[in-house]
Amino acid sequence: MRFITRFSVLLAPLCLTFAAAHAADAHWTYAGDQGPAHWGELGSALCASGTQQSPIDIETSQAQMHKVSAEDLKLHYGKQPLKLINNGHTIQATVADGDSLTFKGDEYRLLQFHFHTPSEHQFNHQAYPMEMHLVNQDKDGHLLVLGLMIKEGRENQELAHLLKQLPKEEGKKTELPAKFAPNLARLVPSASHHLFYNGSLTTPPCTEGVQWVLVARWTRTDRRP
Ligand SMILES: [Zn+2]
To answer: Which residues are catalytic?
Structure first.
């Protein structure tokens, strides 16, 4: 976890391609000699020297939160065929063409989603049990990651169904036809806080210029996620 507090800073977005974003995917881990503290030495300099690195720890009392107006963020998610793979770092689902979102008038296509346990982003120094990242890309290659903070509790049927089908063993792949896929629109809670900031990929090469939209539920006095 790299602690950088920085909110709603708008930058001229860097032009990324998704292929470039995954170029240095080879040798890194979440702990030990190849863990986050060493990512900078492992050929991903930005992970150590970047100024807009994700994830961040959000002080909810200081966060400049915006209730997202219908005009800012519109999800056009539904059920699409999925290709699921356990790649050793995470379980990732490649989404067939068709889902998209509109953020401040720009359209982004949903490319893939994956999970982190526990969450990468923290709220008041606390992680959530799980974080889901939905990676979207506009026609110029800019990335927008929708990060959903997930905790146990009121069961989300779509998510519970999906989690059961995720491949548990490294290297394992499965495919899910649309009719068995979750309706992704239903994963995003309607009554929630959304927080926007400009950050980076959270794994090597830690490329910056990524628009984040974090979705979590908390109240002003809530110290625990
Ligand atoms: Zn992620």
So the answer is: 89
